[in-house]
Design goal:
single chain; alpha+beta; three-stranded antiparallel β-sheet; two-stranded antiparallel ribbon
Length: 175
């Protein structure tokens, strides 16, 4: 909602009022009481209704933000909350790749699996099975978040009305 001031059939901003009445000192936000002696009335102008394309763009941004937040917030693994952001994804993949890379370069010593610290501080000593399960858990979760966002973005693109756009929402159970 914007505020304008009507005087003699025309609309003015505060700046315009100051030019119309150069000898009057107006407060930053004049009240109707300040303006009545000058024959000026306050007019509230509603904000323009957004177009369907503007609503779709806002909804797209909302969906992408929800997807990114869900990926950043993570999921659970072995009963503990874990990160699934880009850093966690890269680290999990490197844990999986390290033994293969060591063998490929002819390393005689096996590459030990590291520990994994969950968001709640629980530490898990990884082995091949845990590392595989962790990597798959992270990747499955992240892929599901991206697929959900893609489905919702398709719905937004197909929306024919403001109501259709408003009906597209990020599922609450996904964070």
């Amino acid at each position: 909602m914007s505020i304008m001031y009507e005087c003699r059939g025309a609309l003015y901003s505060v700046y315009g009022l100051r030019r119309l009445f150069p000898r009057v000192s107006f407060p930053a936000e004049p009240t109707q009481e300040d303006l009545t002696p000058l024959g000026v009335t306050i007019v509230e102008i509603p904000d323009p209704v957004p177009t369907l394309e503007e609503l779709k763009e806002r909804k797209r941004e909302e969906i992408l933000a929800a997807r990114d937040a869900a990926v950043r917030d993570g999921t659970t693994w072995q009963g503990h909350p874990i990160w699934t952001d880009g850093d966690a994804q890269r680290l999990a993949l490197s844990v999986m790749a390290a033994p293969t890379l060591a063998a490929a370069v002819g390393s005689a010593a096996p590459v030990p699996y590291p520990t994994w610290t969950c968001k709640d501080g629980h530490v898990v000593q990884l082995d091949e099975a845990y590392a595989t399960d962790l990597c798959l858990t992270i990747q499955t979760y992240v892929t599901a978040m991206y697929n959900t966002a893609a489905d919702l973005l398709t719905q937004v693109g197909a929306a024919q009305s403001a109501e259709d756009v408003a009906a597209v929402v990020w599922p609450e159970n996904l964070g």
